[in-house]
């Protein structure tokens, strides 16, 4: 969603800000703007649409060396230039960019209007810049602090003042901000991606931190008083500057990165000599593992689907009762949490507001929650304190692909480690671990020889009115994931069901030619799923079957057959999801969609 970039140094600030905003485009946004300190005032340029439109509008004479920029994903007020950030105070001498939501903005606005403040936008944010102006008496930090003392809600903000060249004041509460250490220059961003061309040394701000940033450093204090120092962290190699390489889209590149991202996720964690696995971040003794009563895996969207596989592995392999829940629902249902219950919060970005809210709810109730997170230093990773990084590396495309497979792999490793304590002998554990370790290569081989039938499926699905996805057990999670991908990238209406549910209602929708995609690994549920295929075929469906290579019967009942390598049930999603990722990508392409930035979506959903 929204993104913030700031720069203080000796360079012309506008190009640095524009480059940072371009790197944040993947998060999803609908307008962009920047504010540059220029002598005794602040210049702003704002545009609806892509950063390219902003770039074209920024005049070369915009010379200042202190600036802030913003990409906005509209929440309060339409997609207009007036609503784009940064917002200015009445004197045009203070500019402010904001991520998050000011919940009491209506009351604050009414009060400010009574006092004579004139509003130029419909946003919740504008109250902030007027409040900062109202309380400004020469000390910028004090003004921001006093203003923030009146607001309820979430924020990551960046503020510049014409009277204080070379200074940015930033503050965070529920919306991430990082400070980037340069050489004689300092950066600010809501996401370290924005800084990848300039520095890998970053400081993550904590909630209720306020920071004064200057070219040669920064000072952090707490909103309720007192200074604080935070460590400089160095981002790993995989987070260094990234491009699309020879791929036409980030999504395709990320699909093809899965052999590497999976290998990174598994490396050093599966330990064949022990017939088990070791996950340092979990810090659970065998005794702790033995006493777990129930595991709940929390997540949203794709991360929830990965969580479904994770929960199935915890139950099926480790024999611990487990379930997965959509984080946004969990957090408000006043869940009962026992002392021996364990939670995992799965999130690529580590910033999803609903998942973060669920983590906090678990913690308020005294529960233990571990993160299964990709972005290092993200809010969920930090709030959980312990967990597993999935090491996918940067995922830029809005549609999650390599993060899904790494999340599943990380949960399978965790399940294996728990299983060795609770259920599995060394030989069974080793067999599972060996199969996991072989997965990156098998994924690579399949991707290198993608069956031509994927294109036949693309043809059928991109012409269909809607598409059904069916599967059972973990293959139902894959069906949900395949349907989500096709919806978000190709905008094709889809439904995913556990196959046996069809006869309880949805089969009424099947008509001549309806595309139905069925995931049928050769496991204990295979024959039952094959029966469902017969039922939908009998009603005219055209059936695309993703099945185990060599399963000739499954291939024969299919109108379009897509074989994937044989795998044991719990591991099979790592292979059966691949054709569905490519199907969505290729259908999106065929239908002329904006693959990496699909309409209405944001990569990191930081509002409820
Ligand atoms: O960053 P997270 O994994 O927490 O994000 C959760 C969902 O917003 C995300 O998976 C979303 O569903 C993706 N667009 C799916 O491709």
Distance between the termini: 12 Å
- CATH C-level name of the largest domain: Alpha Beta
By DSSP, the count of extended strands is: 27
CATH superfamily of the largest domain: Aminohydrolase, N-terminal nucleophile (Ntn) domain
Helix share of residues? Answer: 25-40%
CATH topology call of the largest domain = Glutamine Phosphoribosylpyrophosphate, subunit 1, domain 1
What's the architecture of the largest domain, going by CATH?
4-Layer Sandwich
Radius of gyration: 25 Å
Specify the number of helices: 19
Q: Explain this structure to me?
A:
This protein is an alpha/beta fold and 608 residues long. It has three domains: 3-240, Glutamine Phosphoribosylpyrophosphate, subunit 1, domain 1, CATH 3.60.20.10; 250-448, 3-Layer(aba) Sandwich (Rossmann fold), CATH 3.40.50.10490; 453-590, 3-Layer(aba) Sandwich (Rossmann fold), CATH 3.40.50. Helices cover 35% and strands 23% of the residues. It is built from 19 helices and 27 strands. The radius of gyration is 25 Å and the shape is globular. 5-amino-5-deoxy-1-O-phosphono-D-mannitol binds at residues 300-303, 347-349, 352, 355, 398-400, 484, 488, 601, 604-605. The site of 5-amino-5-deoxy-1-O-phosphono-D-mannitol has 17 residues, from α9 and α16.
């Amino acid at each position: 969603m929204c993104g913030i970039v700031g720069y203080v140094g000796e360079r012309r600030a506008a190009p640095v800000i524009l480059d940072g905003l371009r790197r944040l485009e993947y998060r999803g946004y609908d307008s962009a703007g920047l504010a540059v300190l220029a002598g005794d005032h602040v210049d702003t340029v704002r545009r609806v649409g892509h950063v390219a439109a902003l770039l074209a509008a920024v005049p070369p004479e915009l010379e200042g060396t202190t600036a802030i920029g913003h990409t906005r994903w509209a929440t309060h007020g339409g997609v207009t230039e007036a609503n784009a950030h940064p917002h200015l105070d009445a004197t045009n001498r203070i500019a402010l960019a904001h991520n998050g939501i000011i919940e009491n903005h209506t009351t604050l606005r009414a009060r400010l209007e009574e006092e004579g403040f004139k509003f130029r936008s419909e946003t919740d944010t504008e109250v902030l810049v007027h409040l900062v102006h109202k309380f400004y008496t020469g000390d910028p930090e004090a003004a921001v602090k006093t203003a923030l003392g009146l607001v309820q809600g979430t924020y990551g903000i960046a503020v510049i003042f014409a009277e204080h060249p070379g200074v940015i004041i930033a503050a965070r509460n529920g919306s991430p901000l990082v400070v980037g250490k340069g050489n004689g220059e300092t950066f600010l961003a809501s996401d370290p991606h924005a800084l990848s061309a300039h520095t890998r040394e970053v400081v993550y701000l904590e909630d209720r931190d306020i920071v004064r940033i200057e070219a040669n450093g920064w000072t952090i204090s707490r909103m309720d008083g007192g200074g604080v120092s935070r460590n400089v962290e160095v981002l790993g190699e995989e987070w260094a500057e990234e491009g699309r390489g020879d791929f036409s889209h980030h999504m395709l590149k990320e699909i093809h990165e899965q052999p590497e991202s999976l290998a990174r996720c598994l490396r050093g964690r599966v330990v064949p000599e022990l017939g088990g696995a070791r996950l340092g971040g979990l810090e659970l003794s065998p005794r702790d593992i033995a006493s777990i009563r129930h595991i709940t895996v929390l997540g949203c969207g794709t991360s929830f689907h990965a969580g479904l596989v994770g929960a199935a592995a915890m139950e099926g392999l480790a024999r611990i009762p487990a379930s997965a829940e959509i984080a946004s629902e969990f957090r408000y249902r006043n869940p009962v949490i026992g002392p021996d219950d364990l939670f995992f919060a799965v999130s690529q970005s580590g910033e999803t507001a609903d998942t973060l809210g669920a983590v906090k709810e678990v913690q308020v109730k005294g529960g233990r929650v571990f993160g299964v997170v990709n972005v290092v230093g993200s809010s969920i990773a930090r709030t959980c304190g312990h967990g597993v990084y999935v090491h996918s590396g940067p995922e830029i495309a809005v549609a999650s692909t390599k993060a899904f497979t790494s999340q599943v792999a990380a949960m399978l490793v965790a399940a294996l480690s728990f299983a060795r304590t609770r259920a599995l002998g060394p030989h069974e554990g080793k067999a599972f671990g060996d199969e996991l370790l072989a997965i990156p290569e098998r994924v690579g081989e399949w991707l290198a020889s993608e069956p031509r039938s994927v294109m036949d499926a693309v043809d059928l699905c991109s012409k269909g009115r809607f598409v059904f996805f069916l599967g059972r057990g973990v293959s139902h999670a894959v069906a949900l994931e395949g349907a989500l991908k096709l919806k978000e990238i190709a905008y094709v209406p889809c439904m995913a069901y556990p196959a046996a549910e069809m006869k309880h209602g949805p089969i009424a929708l099947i008509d001549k030619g309806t595309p139905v995609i069925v995931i049928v690994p050769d496991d204990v549920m295979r024959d039952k799923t094959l029966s469902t295929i017969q039922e939908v075929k009998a009603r005219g469906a055209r059936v695309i079957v993703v099945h185990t290579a060599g399963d000739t019967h499954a291939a024969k009942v299919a109108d379009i057959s897509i074989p994937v390598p044989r795998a044991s049930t719990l591991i099979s999603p790592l292979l059966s999801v691949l054709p569905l990722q490519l199907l969505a990508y290729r259908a999106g392409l065929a239908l002329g969609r904006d693959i990496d930035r699909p309409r209405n979506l944001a990569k990191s959903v930081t509002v409820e």
